[in-house]
Design brief:
Length: 171
């Protein structure tokens, strides 16, 4: 299967790309940064905020794994506009392209909805907008040791709220 991985050069994305390649899939990374160390995958260098580029990339693939996102670092906490543009508007660009081409899509979201940072807030905001039947939402539930307390931590998130019918049925 030809699979497009948005954010495929990131930490989680690069591991997803490795796993897809290990299972024999033809993978293209959609990312705003080109990483020259991969010669076994295609590279589509573009920004998730560019709806036309997203449509072009989605049209060439049978499956999409949307991992693109701007993390909640101190820079984005003090100026969250980039997080909203990438994590919400960019995700909507993917959702609309997937709907247009009937492509299967997995939306990777944040499981730590209780984190009060721009990443968690914007990723969780985009999540309910992808309730089409061809989309699968996979919450990434973080489990691990807290860097601050050293204690084992796990998070949960509330159920997905369906997208309003008016948006879902729009052409």
């Amino acid at each position: 299967m030809r699979v497009l991985v948005t954010g495929g050069n990131g930490f989680i994305g690069s591991h997803v790309v490795d796993l897809l390649r290990a299972h024999g899939h033809a993978v293209t990374i959609f990312d705003r940064y080109r990483r020259p160390f991969r010669d076994d995958v295609g590279q589509f260098t573009a920004d998730i905020k560019d709806a036309e580029a997203v449509c072009d990339a989605v049209s060439q693939h049978e499956g999409i794994m949307n991992l693109a996102g701007v993390l909640g670092t101190s820079e984005t906490v003090s100026s969250p506009h980039e997080s909203v543009a990438v994590n919400v508007d960019g995700a909507i660009n993917v959702y609309e392209a997937v709907r247009k081409f009937g492509t299967r899509c997995v939306q990777i979201t944040v499981g730590n909805y209780t984190w009060n940072n721009s990443y968690a807030i914007t990723k969780y905001t985009a999540e309910p907008m992808c309730s089409e039947s061809s989309w699968t939402v996979v919450p990434v539930v973080a489990t691990g040791r807290s860097s601050r307390t050293g204690m084992l931590a796990s998070t949960r998130r509330p159920p997905i709220v369906p997208m309003p019918a008016a948006y879902r049925n729009a052409n």
